[in-house]
Amino acid sequence: MSLLNYLPPPATAQSIRFGDWIFSSPELVTGNPFLGLGGLESPGLYVVLAYDAGWRPLPYRPLYFGESDNIWSRATPSHENYESWKGESRTATLYRAFHYMTGSTRAERQARESALIAHYNPPCNQRLSFDLGLDFFRR
After folding, report:
1. Which of 1, 24, 83, 96 has its CA 20 to 30 A from that of 47?
2. Which residues of 59-90 are buried (b: 16+ CB within 10 A; e: fewer)?
3. What does the alpha-carbon distance between residue 91 and residue 78 come to, in Å, rounded to a whole number?
4. Cα angle vertex 82, ends 78, 88, to 5°?
5. What residue ranges do the domains of the chain occupy?
6. Where in the chain does DSSP place strands (E)?
């Protein structure tokens, strides 16, 4: 592994795209759900990321995709997969980004979550919410 993978990432205000969906700018995973851009109940998707200088176009590698009706309370150190995220990141720092889906149903969120998991195969996701296949990206 390159020494560059251990350097801190550059500051970014740039959003990040996974598949057809735009996520917020990556920010540090924190235990405080009121830090960052939100804090109130927000349905949508979240992605947990590790800094990886070899990942393009931005240097963040997805470790885990999730969905929730309150995304701010899920991408935190209290998540049941937090230790897995830390182990896969190979660094002490984890990042998160959010894709807001105001007014969405759980089924809609699970469909997008499953499509992202199927496409990116992140190491900390162990199952799909739906079996959509990759055709979901070709709409």
Report:
1. 1
2. bbbbbbbbbbeebbebbbeebebbebbbebbe
3. 18
4. 170
5. 12-138
6. 16-18, 21-23, 27-28, 44-51, 60-68, 95-100
pTM, two decimals, is 0.79
Which residue reads 């897995």 in tokens? 84
Q: How far is CA 98 from the centre of its chain?
A: 7
pLDDT for residue 11? 46
So what's the pLDDT on residue 138?
Answer: 42
The CATH architecture that domain 12-138 belongs to is 3-Layer(aba) Sandwich (3.40)
Q: Give the model confidence (pLDDT) of 50-108 as tens digits.
A: 999 898 889 999 999 999 999 988 888 999 999 999 999 987 789 999 999 999 999 99
The residues with which 27 forms a beta bridge, in sequence order, are: 96
